[in-house]
Amino acid sequence: MAVAPLAALHRKLFDETDGSKFARLKERLLKKHAPDDRLAVLDILTAYARDGQLLHWRSFLMTDIVHLVEGSQHAAFFAWALEQPTLAYWGVDGLLKSIGVEAYAPLVALAASGATSLEVRAKAIKSLAVFSRQPFDQGLPTDPGHWKAEQLRLDAVLAWQADGYPDGAGYKAPATHETLTRPLSRLEMAATFLDRKLALRRQREQDLAQPSNWLTLASAADMAEIEAHWVLPEIYRRFLAWYSPLRVHVDGKRFPQGLHLYGAAELVKAQHGYSVDAVHHHTIAAWPPKLVVIADAGGDPYCVHLEERSIDGDLPVYRANHGTGEWRFELHTDDFIDFLHEIALAA
């Protein structure tokens, strides 16, 4: 009697000892069977996470398990996973997804446990913050794996528990300029095009505790600091004031090392290592004095010149390679708006 395809794949997974082959079998399981037999696939994956012979794959499977789970049928598995050091990190999200607010008490206990690793404690607090819309993660790195022990806001978490786990207000999206919905000028249309492309990135992944890939209104204080350092070309000054990049980072074929476009809050400090010595804060003589770095790709600076203008008031963007012993600047785009279009196409 022939063995059913899912049963045969189940057996192969548990028998496989080669990690690369296991990965291919796992992908086949997810693509061919998860859409129609989600619960059966979950049973196979959770069984492997408990008893599979490839130990690293037992933990790697947790993200797939969390993605597939719906409802409380696998709550007992996630409760067990929280007690396993290598599975607890993603067990946090699995338990929240399975039983919602009923997961609060065990996750607060996990966060408070000195016997639990810092990474897992931080993950518990981060996921509780996201689920409850409480600001336990405000201003902290998006990845809780980068949190330090002193950043665990355990007192706030315990106070929230004592108050009966109320829902928080969550985070508001950053303020944006009205012209992003009604663009008229070339600059406004370029900024709107870039924002629409960045919005696609925000839809895929966004943490409003540390929002990224936004074009936002600059603060008056940030603009005042900039104006104390330079008299910027008007088109670039307006871009910063109306569409200040907030953690804007794009990558791809155009920028294989990734490009970071500076916002008003970071522009002054971003000159460190280029025109300003990062340690002693004195001006570096070898740097051309009229160039302001507005972005970098893997350390390679992209600059505007304070005294160059095109006929329509735009300005060219220059680029140089770092680490060559001396700065050799080349024209990158004829105007700043073209540079914004290039970034948008890479977003």
Automatic annotation (TrEMBL):
SUPFAM superfamilies: SMI1/KNR4-like
Short name of any one Pfam family annotated for the protein: SMI1_KNR4
Membrane-traversing stretches: none
Ranges of residues in domain Knr4/Smi1-like: 218-340
Domain of life the protein comes from: Bacteria
InterPro entries: Knr4/Smi1-like_dom, Knr4/Smi1-like_sf
The name this protein goes by in its record: Knr4/Smi1-like domain-containing protein
Organism, scientific name: Janthinobacterium svalbardensis
Taxonomic path: Bacteria, Pseudomonadati, Pseudomonadota, Betaproteobacteria, Burkholderiales
